[in-house]
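Q: Here's a chain of 403 amino acids. Please give me its 3D structure as tokens.
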Amino acid sequence: MWLVFYFPMETSYKPYQTAMKKITILLLCILSIIYSCSEKQNKEVKHTFVAVKEVPEIELETVTDSTQKNYDFINTTTNQKVSVLHHIEQTAFHVYNSVTFTTDKIGVLVGGTGLRARITKNGGKTWKQYSFSRFANSFHDIAFVNKSLFVVGESNYIFKTSDLGQSWSVLDTEHFFDVKGIVQFEYYKIRFLNHKLGYISGVQNGHPVLLKTTNGGTDWGVVQKKGLDSKEFAISDFKILSENELIIVTQSGNCYKSIDQGNTWTLIYSSDEQYSQLNAIDFKDAQTGYIGGLNGTLLHTDDGGTTWEKIALPAAASKSNISDILFVQDHFLITSAISFDNEERDVFVYTIDEKGSNLQPFLTKDDSEVFFVGDSYGLDVLQDTVYVLDRNNLYKTVVADKE
């Protein structure tokens, strides 16, 4: 933090009084800084979840339920109905990053600005908004486990609610790291393998971060990352294969595998392209899966990452960011994003089989009332229902033709 002292020019000649005034102001400033530092040092560090109201820097604001004007159109690829469950007329910075539904009625969106989360309890007819910051920071991901909802993003706090937003608590992760000065956090993904084991990935002051819980999110700790390149940046996404096996992708364009819950890592893919960045991953099992990222990068493996095949995308998607990958039944869904583009993208979601072939559009339309922005960062599936995010639009459809 920089301190700048400004002393105005005197209009009268009073050198003694002026000097004393300057000294007094300087002493007051120094005493204020010492007191502030002392208060910070004496501040009790909470290593458990505490109520949001106990954390002064978090400003919870709740917006009354906003009613959506739901609209339906036909997916011309599957000939199935698509419902628009969420839409904001003035998009601005309302780019939502993640969606999850636990039932056909209960769903959550996170993103936008100001650490914003939106919860519906009636299948998208109304949404209630919760925001926790006055700034432009954003939530990135959500996960339900043991009847609790966890939310992470551009904050050192892990947010939690066990009653769908009626009350919130937070865990400060800053005390995990022995870093002096300004500490910056961005958590990108939170995922659970079961009701106990889960991870959070991201970046802290330019260094990759991986947190782990073994008791369903009650307690979290830092995972050691032996084997990761010293210049590695953020861990952007990961797949939990089993109790011990974990695969991550990074914003440096690398993919690593661990067989000991993330303590040691082996590099299984590294991009040789400049400005490469991997942002998405999903696997059917320990052998078969995809990773993707910037510049339309999509790679397939059927031998656990020993070899990789690059998948050629259509020209319309070749410059996009592969932002999310999701295995559904016997195929994978892939969504993509192109930011700051005012032109409509006819296709931004694709389906591909587990063998790395038969890439096809998944969501298409003829309806001119709906505008596909193609700035999509999240997919979710509940049984045979698929949820697709597109900036602030949320679409609901089905996995395949039910004829």
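Q: Can you summarize the key feature?
A: The longest strand covers residues 185-192.
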